[in-house]
Structure prediction request, 306 residues.
Amino acid sequence: MALAPPQSDQISLRAQGRVARRQAFSRLSRYILLLATVTGIGVLVVLAVDTMVRGLPVLDWQFITSYPSRNAEEAGLRSSLLGTVWVMGTTIILAIPVAIGTAVFLEEFAPKGRFTSVVRLNIANLAGVPSIIYGILGLTVFVRGVELQGVTLFPALGTTILAGSLTLALMILPMTVIASVEAIRQVPPSIRDGSLALGATRLQTVRHHTLPGALPGIMTGTILAISRAAGETAALIMIGAFAFIAFDNKSVNEDFTTVAIQIYNWTTRPQEAFRANASAGIIVLMVMVIGLNLVAVLIRERFRRK
Prediction:
């Protein structure tokens, strides 16, 4: 009589118990994150469409070239656009060389030690400080000046372009330093070692090899920081930037306004026509910021190819 072969236990590859619950939660989290992303994008799309519907009928060449006015139909962005150009240009001149120089010193020349670590930590902390704090600092130091026992430590600049630019320069300085440090750190050490081995000094190595290799990252971080400064409102309101300027700026010692300040002023008006002007101003500001971001992308891609 033949015996039946013993039946072996069937082995299942399906997860069970705690592993199964973890896998189910992992699959669920993917859909939750996707929903969060779609929700955020959906809100942005709704806001963008609403802004376009309100602002595009108002946006024309007359709106760009007209001064602010008490009549919404005659109001424009001319003085605020010129003020933005003045403030951003001065901010770039004041902040960018200092930021890049600081990054080069910290990454290439500063001795590794506790002091350097503390400096890096404080720069990282300053990058997260709210802009209103920089506005208070700018009001106290740059606008009103600093005196100690009758001695002027820093002259009072008033509510001028120079005071606003110094405030914005302090605001974007930490993030520009961090972006530049990371870009310099991405340059391969072999490039530095090869240059030094061939007899170049450390300064020559930084000038001819390290900085050109880090330039795409530095430019990207710099332009993104400038984009943030271009849309800044709280810090400039704090130092007393004017909302109504009906003349063209010709020096850094004049009163000023910016596109962001002008938009804020229009949104505080009860008339619906001024809200349409604010939507048109938002479109102009969005185009400026998107243009700066596009320039950053193009610069990065161009230097990567090289």
Observations:
- The two ends are 83 Å apart (CA to CA).
- The chain has a mean pLDDT of 85.
- The beta strands are 146-148, 151-154.
